[in-house]
Amino acid sequence: MDSAALIVREKEPLNVESPACVLDSFLTPNDLFFIRNHFPIPRLNPESYRLRVDGAVADPLRISYEELRAMPSRTSTVTLECAGNGRSFLQPRKSGVPWELGAIGTAEWTGVPLAHLLRRAGVDDGAVAVFVEGADRGEPTNDPKPDGEIAFARTLPIEKAQEPDVLLAYRMNARDLTPEHGFPVRAIVPGYYGMASVKWITHIEVLREWPRGYWETSEYSYWDAAEGRPIVRPLDKIRVKSAIVRPRMHEIVRPNMGYRVTGAAWSGTSEIAKVELSVDGGETWNVARLLDASRRYAWRRWEYEWRTPAQSRMCVLLSRARDSTGATQPDHHDANYGSYAINYTLPVEVFVRSSMRSSGIRTESISGRVENLVGETLL
Ligand SMILES: Nc1nc2c(c(=O)[nH]1)N[C@H]1C(S)=C(S)[C@@H](COP(=O)(O)O)O[C@H]1N2
Ligand SMILES: [Mo]
Fold it and tell me: From the CA atom positions of the chain, what is the Rg in Å?
């Protein structure tokens, strides 16, 4: 990963993705971790910073950065995936930041369990939700939307907010957060898509009723068909998914060789139980070897030793993960999720040929799709 750099998808607000090779290392270095912003990055002063905890609580709190850092802390290894990761592969194309494979990363996050602050504040019996608000503001993009500026925010069910692994984090891989990743304090909500991990948190409000604001309806929501008739729900758990890191799309590999196919798999619902790889477009499946120990909220890397075909041809590789609840990746994107939760098995077309010249294959006739490598390099 020496020469790797982030890929800019949008400059203002800043949205940059990791090169796909980050999925090859278990922890993502901070300077290669994707950045997803809706609004300009706020610059907060740690001296004057205060976190308010109020709403349906017995004793509202106002906590300084110093006080927070003096509280009992916890470190957890958590994979963050943006709900729009992989959006650029959707056909027809959808609007939104055109992420490829790299709107995901894994870090060791250190902070105070949100449950600790909720206990200190004393949550009322009737509480159902916890509203978590950032210091960044701007005009939202999705319809329906209110006029003017709003702050970025997300609401968590009270049960989730009280889980010991939900953190108010101030360190990422043993370093203080940088402004881009939420300095001084951000939420880390393991198992949920990235939008729940609110950065630059300044306000936490305990609610007796589930709100129906912009962030609960217009953005990061989906149509749940399980209710007899479709109903809008906020996105929450990361759906089981895997990605092939090696080979890359349209890579040329030599015939009749041992080739190590690698990738990663993750799920917000439970641990990864199995990863399978197909080298024939999904006709047959082979079991891949899982490499990392199983951890509840972190991805697992995997590998598969592929004997490439003896003849020149195109091969379509697919990986498919299953988690311990039995959930597996679908063959196609579920339209009820719009441009989010893109976890279908993504075909990777690879050319097997011994040299450029000996191949009778014309690439243009095989795939009209040209790999989308646009994007500028940052840093
Ligand atoms: N305050 C605030 N928090 C935020 C966001 C934001 O725009 N503002 N983006 C969210 C989204 S959609 C994702 S995927 C993660 C990304 O975290 P990162 O930028 O540290 O990778 O932050 C989340 N937290
Ligand atoms: Mo996101």
Answer: 22
